[in-house]
Amino acid sequence: MITFNQKTKVFTLDNGSITYSFLLNEEGFLETLYYGPHLNEELSKESLRGGDIDNCSTEYFDTDSNKEKTFPDHFKSTTASLEIATHGYLDKRGAPIIIQNPTGSYQTSFIFSSYQIFDGIKELKDLPGIRTKKKDCETLEITLQEQEAPVKLVYSLTIFTGFDVISKSFQIINEGEESLHLLRAFSLELDLLSSSYTLNHFDGVWANERNWNRNPVVQGEQRISSNYGRSSHEENPFVFLSSTDASMTTGEVIGFNLIYSGNFTFRTFSDYSKSLRILYGLNDEDFDYQLAPRQKFETPIALMFYSSCGVDGLSVVCQQFIKKHIINQQIDHNYKPIIFNSWEGCLFDFNTDKIISYIKDSEKIGSELFVLDDGWFGRRNDDYDGLGDWHVNSSKIDLHRVIDYCHQEKLKFGIWFEPEMVNPNSDLFKKHPEYVLGYNHKAMTISRHQLVLDFSNPEVVDCIYQQMVLFLDEYPVDYIKWDHNRSIGEHYSSYYPFSQQGEIYHRLVLGYYSLLSRLTKRYPQILFEGCASGGARFDLGTLYYCPQIWASDESDPLQRISIQYNTSLGYPLSTIGSHVNNNPLTSYKTKAMIAFFGTYGYEMNPNNLKTSEVEELSEIKELYHQYHQSVVEDGVVYHLMNPNISDFVALESVSSNQESALLLLMNKLKDHDHYYSLKLLGLKDEYQYQNDLDNQVHSGQYYRLVGLRFSRSWFNEFNCRIIKIIKKK
Ligand code: GLA
């Protein structure tokens, strides 16, 4: 899959479906040749430069010989397509790595020294990575040397079998005797010859996450980023470029994601030449990492997903790759129980009897895992107190009785934590005020009455770990909802000296991962669900440890369906936490059908459900038991009609053996006398399928080319329907 041609000096990564190649030029720079569908012909320097060879020289003054020299390879640094651009020279389009070396110089330029190719991928030390077996992928590791300072750069590229995915990352190693400053440590550079793309990204705010935005790539610089200290509501790290003629099913689309949960920057730069430089990685705002002698810095892994079959083609690659290579399958492949979460039903206002009555009534609608959300610990009766004091408030709740009751009823039990936060009223803050970010500042920003714990300090992480272990060793829980309810304001840590304050944003994320990885290792049977004020940390770093993430605090079915639709462009449905609540806009049945296209669960006061509502929900519960695991959890979703641009929604999820599919249809507005033909995707052409809309049997090819015929006037406003399309035996 990965080759190096000694004669042409070309590296090629090829999995039979995509090809990525670059040249090692005579000066030791790596020049990008090609990224796209599999190419039979091997590329060379000549194919890269066409007839323009003589016009591409770069001159420099050589201090050894005191003479002006020309790069023999006619390599023109200001326009070349590069794997790792230089910084501080004449190429001003942006470099992935910037080092300030001990002399104070910002010049950064890496020259090839060696390479190795091996099966599999190396694990990162402190960061989540890719879960693979050796046979799943092959890695090219190139070692480069900085020209002026004793700094080694290891550039890793991995290509995967069966997935049109390439990952990239760097390691920067200080081999000198003095400390240096790493001012930028991105994970990926990709130089493309054309900038005729649309930049697709997912912005938002609390309760309105991941709006699908499309902007043309313009001349100059564009940045999609987070500096909120978490991957954020404001932008999601999943970003893609679609060629200007691409559709949902045709054309070139290149997706990007980062296995990281903190600040990130995705940057495009195009100039008069109309070529495009893409840089992606840790946000370099206030980033200044001091690299001590012999210290190594590893960047998160960035992923590039390729599709020549449009946006849905890309989505399928993302969903399948994440399921196979990011999510912990040991937990995920077990049956996922239907969750009942206490939050929206009773907020902080509960006692043991009320919770037991909730559990009892939640069973009527099929709840299999009862989650006690916020409010069970410390003095937590509102959001002014308790965070940081992770012991049961036994004057409020007899947790042993609740858990025993659940287990006796054959229900699992789950609990809520928000490990990275503290209330100023808590015992922890009173004892250790130095444990917060911004300690000793005259004014510390408060959000939801809470401060942020300084997880860059290992002692703080340890203190929370000890508290959680004490709790978890006593109370047998099956599930943890891990919340993070504010973004980072002050990123000052009193634990680190002046010279290391530029490391705090990143070290906070490392603290989050260290706690998560210790707990998930110690309690492998517990299902962790990520959450951050709704969906502010919906990212691959979190998914590495938590197979599902609460998608949003917004459960208005109309808004919710857009959030789920957009999120599922880049992430599998099995990861998208979604519950039915008591929003009055539509019936319970409609809300349940929408939640079904996610993890599925409930969040309301179950004591108030009418018999007819219990019946509606029971219908969907039956569907859940029959199809959720095979079609939604393990299947792939296609995006047939987009709620962002039409008043109708259609999502189709197909099981991995292509024997069953479920189609979610929803009207936002009624439409009279209008017949539709909805062409389905993902079915097997030669199979025969019966649909339960008109009960007709047709081949997969028919559904693909002719489509399913229906009229929207059968649906009222906000009405929803799930149609089954099942292979005939
Ligand atoms: C966040 C979550 C909610 C709930 C509350 C509890 O807002 O998104 O689901 O857990 O916190 O305080």
Short description:
By secondary structure, the chain is α+β, with helices and mostly antiparallel strands. The chain contains 14 helices and 40 strands.
- Bin the strand percentage: 25-35%
Oligomer: single chain
- Judged by helices, strands and strand pairing, the structural class is alpha+beta
Helix content: 10-25%
What features would you highlight for this structure?
Beta-galactosidase, Chain A, domain 5, 729 residues, Immunoglobulin-like, eight-stranded parallel β-sheet, ten-stranded antiparallel β-sheet
Question: Any overview of this molecule?
Answer:
The protein is an alpha+beta fold. Among the domains are: 245 residues, Distorted Sandwich (Beta-galactosidase, Chain A, domain 5), CATH 2.70.98.60; 87 residues, Golgi alpha-mannosidase II (Immunoglobulin-like, Sandwich). The protein is 21% helix and 31% strand. It has 14 helices and 40 strands. Strands 8, 9, 10, 11, 13, 14, 16, 17, 21 and 22 form a ten-stranded antiparallel β-sheet that branches. The radius of gyration is 27 Å and the shape is globular. The model has no long low-confidence stretch (mean pLDDT 95). The site of alpha-D-galactopyranose (GLA) has 11 residues, from loops.
